[in-house]
Fold this sequence. Notes:
Elements: H1 3-13, E1 28-34, E2 41-48, E3 54-60, E4 68-72, E5 80-84, E6 97-99, E7 105-109, E8 119-123, E9 129-134, E10 152-153, E11 159-163, E12 177-181, E13 187-192, E14 210-211, E15 217-221, E16 231-235, E17 241-246, E18 257-264, E19 270-276, E20 291-295, E21 301-306, E22 323-325, E23 331-335, E24 342-345, E25 348-349, E26 352-356, E27 362-367, E28 378-385, E29 391-397, E30 411-416, E31 424-426, E32 429-430, E33 435-439, E34 448-451, E35 454-456, E36 458-460, E37 467-471, E38 481-485, E39 488-491, E40 497-498
Parallel strand pairs: 32-40
Antiparallel strand pairs: 1-30, 2-3, 3-4, 4-5, 6-7, 7-8, 8-9, 10-11, 11-12, 12-13, 14-15, 15-16, 16-17, 18-19, 19-20, 20-21, 22-23, 23-26, 24-25, 26-27, 28-29, 29-30, 31-33, 33-37, 34-35, 34-38, 36-37, 38-39
Amino acid sequence: MSKLDWRNRACAAVLLCVTAPIGLSAQTFKTLHSFDGTDGASPSGLVQATGGNLYGTTAAGGVSAVGTVFKIRPGGGPVKTLYSFNYLDGSYPEPGLVQAAGGNFYGTTTIGGANNSGTVFRITPSGSLTTLYSFCSQSGCTDGDMPQGGLVQATGGNLYGTTSQGGAATCSGGCGTVFRITPSGSLATLYGFCSKSGCHDGSDPRSGLVQGTNGNFYGTTARGGAHKYGTIFKITPSGSLTTLYSFCSQSSCTDGFDPGALVQATDGNLYGTTTSGGANTTDCGGFGCGTIFKITPSGSLTTLYSFCSQSSCTDGASPDLGLVQATDGNLYGTTGAGGANMTDCFGSSCGTFFKITPSGTLTTLYSFCTQSGCTDGFEPGALVQDTNGMFYGTTYAGGKTGDCYGDGCGTVFSLSVGLGPFVKTQPAYARVGGFVEILGTNLTGSTSVSFIGTPAVFRVVPNLNSLIKTTVPEGATTGTVEVVTPGGTLSSNVPFRVLP
């Protein structure tokens, strides 16, 4: 569900929470930047890039008030606006960015472009933008319309994504697609939703895809399926789609509905959230307040948690932006509503930051609008764990400056939960002899790099003490990458996959 959709629904249906005290764990929260409209407004998620800086997009603000691409240091300070969109090259770049092999960023805009139906773009770290594709370039928008999810770069180097509308079928504007696009801009539509009778294959995919360790992609649709309330699907790189689960399969939709993005955890299972449904249907306008679920790659789903299980929804409500697995093995995420602080956040409470174990034990770590005037922001977005161990994210509204619809223009924040530094690889897969970049913190003076114990030749990039360049050594197998630094041994946060 897009933030604008959530805002409309929240005003109508989530007038639910009253102030209740909550014992928060000892966390270190910091507002790194408050947007003021001129430098952007309503920011989306962040990505940690080569060099250690964080990059993101805003859905509004900038020169033409239709969104920006920005950069910010992990320590905070003013953002640097790299690009302001202007309608013709796209507008409302809500889904955020992905940094591909080679260092450039790729993203989508929900609308705008040559046909006002959204775009795929490439932008360099210095801010040079190229529009690669404008959707609805084909008759009847069979190539898709309105991409609301982000992109993922697959093992072959191409990028994959979804559009929420368009395609061959007609669902009052089209039912959505899955597409593949090359880094140079050649697009192929792999699947058009609602291809099966009754839309049992789903419709309206609003989130991006995740590539599993088996090479297939997994994603969700917000609508359609056997019960019309969304699906989880698997699709091969060539476009063969299998519906793994249809939501609202349980009485009163206790399994949830309107699912968001997925993440594959180290146990091989996929984890995600639903914005609505769950066991607590008396709250959130009678729709239910959302869930966290686990699903196996073969389609067996377990509901791990139903929000609003605590009095006055202090545990949060409406989690619509997926999860991230951190180095401690737990999953972290945000809710768009609920929490301890009732104030005028679109007529509801203001959202939370939470941790959940893979077995389903949830802890609320932070409730937004804890600071006077909501200077810490509210309605948080997706999270990223930096190699320094800290979490970074954005809030869609609130902050210290600007009017921006009367609720503040949004923030960038950091939150430490006591996790230590680690390293991550870009990409997370390669063949023997393939080039790999390793991102970390304070890597100067590193004495060794190994892939599952197999030493590799490497170099720390001059003037970038957070970047190592290496190649996959002969004999390496799938598993953990380790870097020995003067400060200790740092391990990769996810297993590196050695391709055959």
